[in-house]
Known about the structure:
two-stranded parallel ribbon, 10 helices, 18% strand, alpha/beta, single chain, seven-stranded parallel sheet, 11 strands, 38% helix, Transcription Regulator spoIIAA
Amino acid sequence: MEQIYTFGSYLKEKFHAKVYKVGINISGFTCPNIDGTAAYGGCTFCENESFSASTGKTKALKGFFLNLQSKENPFLEKQLKQLEMQFYAISKRQKKEYGAEKFIVYFQSFTNTYAPFATLKALYEKALSFENVVGLSIGTRSDSITQETLDYLAELAKTKEIWIEFGIQSVFDATLQKINRGHDSANVKEWVLKAKAKGLNVCGHLIFGLPEETKEMMLQTAKEAYSWGIDSVKYHPLYVVKKTALANEFMRQEFTPITEEEYLDVLTQALLLKPKNVSVQRITAGIDDGSLLAPSWCRDKNTQIKHINAKLKEVGLKY
Length: 319
C-alpha cells in the first residue's frame, strides 16, 4: 500500500516535531461577495455563522467590517486581543490532548487578506510573535489579495513557514456563477501563479459535487489546479446546511447532493492524478449537528474515512 502524502507528514519531515494548525476567527473580517463588492449573500453553500474557529463563535464587532478600501481600523487592538486569547486557548488544548510542540496560526474564517495592509501586518506579526509558532496559513479569495500583501508575505517566508489557502472550488465559470462566487476561474489562476512566483506555499480548496458538475468536470478542476503548481490540496464534498441559498435550492428539489459512492469515485481518481509532491490537508468534510440537511453520509467523519480507505485500498493507496 502506498501512503498518501499528507500535510502532517510534510510538517514532520520539515520541523521534526508535532506541528498543529491553530484555527483563528477574527471579528470584522468578511468577504467581497457578502459585502456587495463582488456580490451579495455569499457563496450559495455558505452559512456565515458556520465560519467559526475551533473555539466556537466569537462575539462580532457589531456593524463593523473591513475591506481593501477601509481607511482606518478603530478595533485593531480588540482584534489583536482576540487573536491572542484564541491562540493560547487552542494551543493549550492541542498541547494537552495531542502533544503539540509547534504551531502554525491559521487565519481561517472568511477572507483573511481582505483588510487594510496595516491591519494585516499587525495581525500576522502578532501571530508570529507567539511562542513556538513557526508560520502562518492564511485563508483567502483570489479577488481579495493585493500585490503589496503578496510581497510582504514573501519577505516573511524567508524565515517562516507561510501558506496561502485559495478557494479554487471549480475551474468552470458557469459553476462559479451558479454558486455566486463573485469571480471567475482566470482570476484564481492568476493569483495562484503570482503567489507561486513569489515563492509562497499554496493550498487549493476543491469542492466535488457542485451544482450540475459531472465527474469529468470535477477531475478537470483537479488537473488544472495541480498544473498551476499548488503545493497542497483540500478536498471537500458539497453538503447542504440550513440558512443557505443552497438549502433553498435543495428544498425546492433543484439541487441533488453528491452520493458517497460518487464522491469516493471522483476522490480516488483525483488522488491518482495528483502529483506525489502535493500534500493532502483534507480528504473530506462534513458537519455533525442539526444544521446539516444533506447528504446524511457527511455527518460522521470517522465512517467517511473508513469508507475512503476501503475504496483507496482497491487502487493500492492508503490515507
